[in-house]
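Interim report to the steering committee. The following record documents the input for Spindle pole body component (716 residues).
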Amino acid sequence: MSLRQLVWTLVSSELDEKLDEHKLHGTFLRSFQRLSSSGRGTVAPPDELIVKHLQGLGRQRGHDRHVLRFQSLRSRLHHSAARPVLALLFHLRGGDRGVVEDVSRPTLKEVRGGWHLASLANQKEISEAKIVRDLLFALQGVSSDCFDSSCEVDPAVLLTRPAWLLCHRILGLAKLHLRLSTDAKEAMGHGLLHQALCEALRKQLQGYYEVLAQLMSCEGLSLRSLWARLLAPMTRLHFLSQLCEGSRGVFGGALSSMVFASGFSGDIVAQDLAKEILRSVVKPLWSMIRAWMTEGELQDPYGEFFVIADASVPLEDLWNRAYSLELEMVPSFISLELARKILLTGKSVNFIRLCCRRTWSPEPLGTSELLPEEEIGASFDLASRVERLSSKTNEHLVKLLMNHFSLGEHALALRRFLLLGQGDFVQSLMDALQEELDIDANKIHKHQLMGILEMALRQSNAQFCSVDVLGRLGIKLRSPERGERGWDVFLLDYSIDSPLHVVFTPNIMQKYDRAFSFLWKLRRVSHALAASWNQHMALQRHLCRDQRDSLDRLSLLETRQTLHRCTLLRHEMHHFVQNVQSYVLEVLDTSWAKLQQGWQKSSDLDEVISQHERYLAAVEEGAFLAKGSEAILSGVSALLSLVLEFCTLQEQACASCFEVAAVEEEESVEAVFQAVRGRPFARSLAECRASLDHLASTFQMKLQLFLRALEDSATV
């Protein structure tokens, strides 16, 4: 509050409110003159007058303590600063006793229009036209005789209360203009959207200057008419000032959101202003969206766009890691789903050009304004344009991957080879690798296995696959652990390059490897059971063909008992393996059918990737490789290991039986009897039967644990 306002408040509060306005204003003028003159004129020192006044009061009341207290307080004050204040307070004590003045009262001249204006400094009359002219200068930020550069009334100018109020209000508009003009010049270095906002402010101020130019040309303009004509510009500048205050520290998409939110008001003028300013502010944003969606370029030197790029990400991770959304920069009038489509379209353009190495020139997004002519809260056609361009770009990318880069064909190759869907190839490969993989894992060599792989391909229908597919198929060996054989480290490999790597990522290929290891072991067990059955049948035919004497019949009976136990246990194991294999194959077939249907409906690359991930997740679940299936996988693996142990045990039993039969064919009965007693044939069969019994009991126990784990997983 200025000194003039303080004095007026003090005078109004101390004097009677019922006084005539002319008397009240006269007292104010005299008080203000006394305070501002700082002792000019023939005025007795205020402290002496106060002491005399207090002494008079003391004689009436019979004590002098008021005088002593005043002198004590006066000693604490600076003399030059205290004198005007003391004079004013003594002047307002309720009377004029003890005051000797030779300062004449200011002349109050009645001016047409009813305003009282005067100059305290030289007692010259100030016309209303002069005040209006100086106010118009102040509204443009120019100082004048009555108002300084900070838009304050010169202390030497005295105005009546109504005139002062009007001037104060008009000068408030001048101060708004000063702040806005300063804010409009601070555009550089704050971002493109902030520069657009400042440009919009300058445009609005240009309209304000046009109003002032019209007022300057008016003749006989009074304070009242000036104030009336400034009401509309004041409303607009008040809104612009609030907008500037709200934009401090805000940039990018958040700035456009702030401007958009300012239009949600019941004031029609504010709505129109917000819509007009927002149309200017979003122009840089619109240019960023257009450049990103059509060219894949981020024209964002100040980091204002809601799509950000990580330059450190390698090209092979472009789709998954190179670009992302900055949620704080997404304008409130753009939904997250629409922002995701904008991000996806630009990623697709870059992926086509950088990873697929193809050219793509989508249709222009358009150059019209971002907002419609309707009210600011209405939906606009940005969503429809983005949807149209996004659909065309993403559809082109999906077709490019499916047709030109044969994504479906390579997925089928992975199913045939890594998921062992090509049965004749798998059978031929296992037959050919039997001897190589039975040895210690440290003794096998990849180049030898590659020759066997090529032979298995030529011996099966896999030879009719495309040259590209067969050229990608290979072998890799996992780092062996102690005691492992070739079966445990053998893996089929499938080479993946760009742009297929976006679907078949290294992490995805590791999941294929895990699925292959489980399915390979399952097929190996099934193959081993089939081989043991063939061996059993060969021995059975050999024994039935020969005729034996009584001693021969004893040996034959022991052999058949051993083979009978092998048959019972093999059937039980085969039943288990066949059920597991049927379940896994059904899962693979069902998941593959769902993948084909999902890919046919996929509209963008993200959907293609997610469909394949769901397919592989179903495969993992069917192969007991999913998270939470560890107990089931452990149980299946233990049971499969017992089956392989049984096949080895039966092979030993059959070898013993063949050896006994061979000896009986060549030697006499006595020699056979001695051989049986002196060589470990009989003991071998007895040990085999004991091992079979132990293996059968262990298999039953493991099977019950496995079934219990299945029940527990079903209840979770």
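The first helix runs from residue 3 to 14. The committee is asked to note this result when reviewing the revised timeline.
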